[in-house]
Write a structure and sequence with these properties.
- The chain contains 7 helices and 4 strands, in the order ββααββααααα.
- The chain is globular.
- The protein has about 190 residues and is α+β, with helices and mostly antiparallel strands.
- The protein has a 4-stranded antiparallel sheet.
- The protein starts with a strand and ends in a 6-residue tail after the last helix.
């Protein structure tokens, strides 16, 4: 099962899951990356999601022990992912599935990721969440320029470096999402 906890300063989430869920997500991202006609860069930012979740279940990121009173939960693993990176990766996953035949497992883990993201956006952004979710669901990850924009605005910090902790991140996040959904990209 996937879950989350919020990062500081509205930067993103700690994506948390048990070994099985993270393994499924890793496998699905690789399969979609290999087969999708809209994933142009087969070694690009989309594959970073598989890398991140693999590092998590290999215990090279966060290891979350079960609470003493609920040991049946078991050990879970987590990885920090910045909002713009995660939102774009998820949209590319979801849009790719429209072009591919896929299994119930693929659909289940994809929807679980989407549900976690929606819940986290609502918790993190409150009254603005519905607008952000609407913009996110209109992202067009088929535009290669969108990934370039993410990379230039902090995508590399999703892989082991500290995220930008600028207090103005919330407003710049919304501006980034608006630019990525527009028919022309913002400067």
């Amino acid at each position: 099962m996937l879950s989350y906890s919020l990062l500081k300063n509205h930067a993103g989430i700690l994506l948390v899951g048990d070994h099985t869920s993270l393994t499924w997500l890793h496998e699905v991202v690789h399969e979609v990356n290999d087969r999708s006609p809209i994933v142009i860069d087969k070694e690009g930012s989309f594959l970073g999601l598989a890398y991140d979740v693999r590092k998590a279940f290999e215990r090279q990121r966060e290891v979350i022990q079960p609470p003493k009173h609920s040991e049946e939960i078991g050990v879970r693993y987590g990885v920090q992912i910045l909002w713009p990176v995660l939102l774009l990766q998820q949209r590319l996953l979801r849009q790719s599935l429209a072009f591919l035949s896929h299994t119930a497992k693929t659909q289940a883990i994809s929807y679980a990721l989407e549900a976690v993201i929606e819940d986290a956006l609502r918790e993190d952004f409150g009254a603005q969440a519905e607008q952000i979710i609407g913009l996110w669901q209109r992202l067009d990850p088929a535009q290669l320029e969108v990934f370039d924009m993410i990379d230039s605005r902090g995508g590399s910090s999703a892989h082991g470096r500290r995220p930008n902790e600028n207090p103005a991140l919330r407003s710049s996040f919304q501006a980034s999402i608006r630019c990525m959904t527009a028919s022309t990209l913002c400067d």
